[in-house]
Specification:
Layout: H1 20-28, E1 32-33, H2 34-37, H3 43-48, E2 53-55, E3 60-61, E4 71-72, H4 82-93, E5 97-101, H5 113-126, E6 131-135, H6 143-150, E7 156-158, H7 176-189, E8 194-201, H8 207-219, E9 224-229, H9 246-259, E10 263-266, H10 277-280
Parallel strand pairs: 2-5, 3-4, 5-6, 6-7, 7-8, 8-9, 9-10
Antiparallel strand pairs: 1-2
Amino acid sequence: MPRAPKPEWLRKKITPSAHKEMITLLGEGDIHTICQEAMCPNISECFGQRVATFMILGVHCTRACSFCAVSRAKPMPPNPLEPENIAQAVSKLGLKHVVITAPTRDDLSDGGAEHFCQTVCSIKALDSSIVVELLISDLQENDSALKQIAMSGAEIIGHNLETVPRLYHVRKGADYNRSLRVLQKLLASNPTCATKSAIMLGLGEKKEEVLQAMKDLLGVGCRYLSIGQYLSPSLKHTSVVEYVEPKRFEFFAKKGFEMGFKHIKSSPYTRSSYMAHEYLERR
């Protein structure tokens, strides 16, 4: 069945020439970004401004979420040189706000928590004023791993709900309530860090379900939220049910601020780490 054409507000242009320099720079240190691996539609905009979300622990995921473009395959062991390589890339780019994520690594006993912490340490050793944001998997709700992440020195720690409970079949191996507990435990382990999450629209969710998910996030202390349009990476992935109009994203942003969120980015092209530095400005 052919895909429905994207509406006008979702026809963002990707311009490879705008990020050629960035790709060359990242390639020199064998650095990966979620921007490339997940085929983010904001890649030209962000790379053109020398902004990227670094992806550590390889490019292969141990789960197979039907909405995600990151490949599922047997991952390689963590690269011990990677934390320093990331720090050097941060230095070359002159970044002041760094976002670090990774594929889900259920094959590792700590889900990769130690590697995340080593990466934060390498960046902070370079310049302690650099703000580090982590975007993690649920780490299978490993309490010691979550505490380690919470105490890593990162100022913001994100874990995405992605969607409403009724549609959680798109998140293989994940559990809605577990994800809420993960966010709760991160904050309980370190009340000084900020927690953040993200929700996709366009999978068939109802307005009331999204509002309830927002309430659930506030209930576990999460005060930062990203809301964006789901775009299917290929015909093999979960199909888009609806292209959500910009005015509905504006509605959720307005409601979210009224409910108590400190900062929300809500628009068709918003992604978890899009304009990430703006969140900390609202702390």
